[in-house]
């Protein structure tokens, strides 16, 4: 027997051995569109977070509703976690398709298989490092998480677009349930590339005799080897239908479990069931979670130094504010969330002078763009920038108090920034200077 025939026969046997009622085109399309929706949601919310932290000069961001970033990033992390069971389910449904012979039948087929390889590998890396980041497991990263996460998002979306483009005829064929079943209720099984003459195979007589199976497709008028071109017949017994329903139920239960057991860090509705997320509402200094402590930032001494002051400057004008002078300014109360890129968030009441009042003291223009510097010696975002829409917002404060009490040092004592619609990493703690840069 020729080597090619042996390989084809072996792959045929493998495909039969891994066949299952839930491994059919209709199920692959159902799971695939849920996974694609999760990917697109992650991509859109991820871009929003990325550009908030790295804005282009022309970008302007909304400050209302005040919880816009809280919800956006909560959806980003929750959808990312949901991708784990969805991606595994998708791989399960298409597993027999790995055993095709020949491995590449045409350029289109090569593009399809390459896009799938890139999509799957990049997706597994992306969701894994994303999950580790929510736990701040940075010791695992010997690379820039933010840059890698951003770059991989484009790789995933690009390969997903190619994959959908190549598979669009198949997706359209099995998109609706009523088009995916015969009149007797049995699953309409896929016949690979029956409309693609480039995918036709010349079946050796010896191989045809060995298999004893072939079928003729009138569309192309060519003979296709059964062992290459079609999966094994579907089992449409009551047990098979129950198995398909059971598979969907298991996938729904897995997605529901990972969401319900972790989304409480982002959404108070699920707080009672938050068993596995790294942050829990109401737990932390002053009843508010903390990402970077004063010890980790290296400010245990500088933040409590009696000579601490906050310097505000514009051009040649410079005003120095002691803590007592800040407290003597008109104080305002706001309820705003701390919403971190790791996905957790919590609303809290803050009190302090408005940032725009401090800038008015140095004659800053209404469209001032400012640079804010922290006392912190370690960690990222020690220096941040704020666009005019946030600077002049009446809810943006130099916060001095939290829940009616002096800020805990882990929350930024003696003063921190709090603004609507901003990531937690940009709500700078342990303020040192505020400089108008444009």
From TrEMBL:
CDD domains: SO_family_Moco. PANTHER family: BLL0505 PROTEIN, PROTEIN-METHIONINE-SULFOXIDE REDUCTASE. It is a multi-pass membrane protein. The keyword Cell membrane applies. Its main location: membrane. Residues 34-165 form the Cytochrome b561 bacterial/Ni-hydrogenase domain. The chain crosses the membrane at residues 30-51, 71-95, 116-138, 150-170, 247-270. It holds the Pfam family Oxidored_molyb. It comes from Microbacterium marmarense. Keywords: Cell membrane, Membrane, Transmembrane, Transmembrane helix. This is Molybdopterin-dependent oxidoreductase. It is found in: Cell membrane. Gene3D superfamilies: Oxidoreductase, molybdopterin-binding domain. Residues 305-437 form the Oxidoreductase molybdopterin-binding domain.
């Amino acid at each position: 027997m020729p080597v090619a025939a042996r390989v084809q026969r072996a792959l045929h046997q493998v495909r039969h051995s891994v066949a299952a009622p839930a491994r059919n085109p209709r199920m692959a399309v159902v799971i695939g569109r849920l996974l694609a929706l999760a990917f697109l949601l992650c991509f859109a919310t991820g871009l929003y977070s990325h550009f908030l932290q790295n804005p282009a000069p022309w970008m302007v961001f909304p400050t209302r509703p005040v919880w816009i970033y809280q919800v956006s990033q909560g959806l980003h992390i929750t959808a990312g976690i949901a991708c784990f069971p969805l991606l595994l389910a998708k791989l399960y449904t298409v597993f027999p398709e790995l055993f095709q012979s020949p491995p590449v039948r045409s350029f289109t087929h090569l593009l399809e298989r390459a896009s799938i390889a890139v999509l799957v590998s990049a997706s597994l890396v992306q969701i894994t490092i994303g999950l580790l980041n929510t736990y701040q497991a940075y010791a695992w990263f010997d690379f820039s998480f933010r840059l890698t996460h951003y770059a991989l998002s484009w790789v995933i979306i690009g390969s997903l677009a190619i994959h959908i483009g190549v598979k669009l005829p198949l997706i359209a064929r099995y998109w609706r349930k009523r088009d995916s079943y015969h009149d007797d209720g049995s699953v309409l099984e896929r016949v690979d590339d029956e409309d693609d003459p480039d995918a036709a195979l010349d079946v050796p007589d010896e191989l045809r005799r060995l298999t004893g199976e072939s079928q003729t497709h009138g569309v192309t008028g060519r003979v296709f080897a059964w062992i290459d071109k079609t999966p094994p017949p579907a089992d449409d017994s009551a047990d098979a239908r129950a198995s398909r329903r059971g598979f969907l139920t298991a996938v729904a239960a897995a997605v529901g479990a990972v969401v319900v057991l972790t989304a409480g860090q982002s959404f108070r509705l699920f707080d009672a069931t938050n068993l596995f997320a790294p942050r829990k509402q109401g737990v932390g200094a002053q009843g508010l979670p903390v990402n970077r402590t004063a010890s980790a930032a290296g400010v245990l001494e500088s933040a409590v130094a009696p000579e601490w002051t906050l310097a505000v400057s514009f051009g040649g004008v410079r005003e120095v504010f002691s803590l007592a002078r800040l407290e003597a300014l008109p104080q305002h109360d706001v309820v705003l969330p701390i919403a971190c890129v790791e996905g957790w968030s919590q609303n809290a009441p803050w009190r302090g002078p408005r940032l725009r009042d401090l800038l008015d003291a140095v004659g800053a223009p209404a469209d001032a763009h400012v640079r804010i510097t922290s006392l912190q010696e370690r960690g990222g975002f020690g220096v941040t920038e704020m666009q005019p829409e946030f600077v002049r917002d009446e809810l943006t404060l130099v916060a001095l108090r939290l829940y009616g009490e002096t800020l805990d040092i882990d929350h930024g004592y003696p003063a921190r920034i709090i603004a609507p619609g901003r990531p937690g990493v940009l709500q700078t703690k342990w303020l040192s200077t505020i400089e108008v840069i444009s």
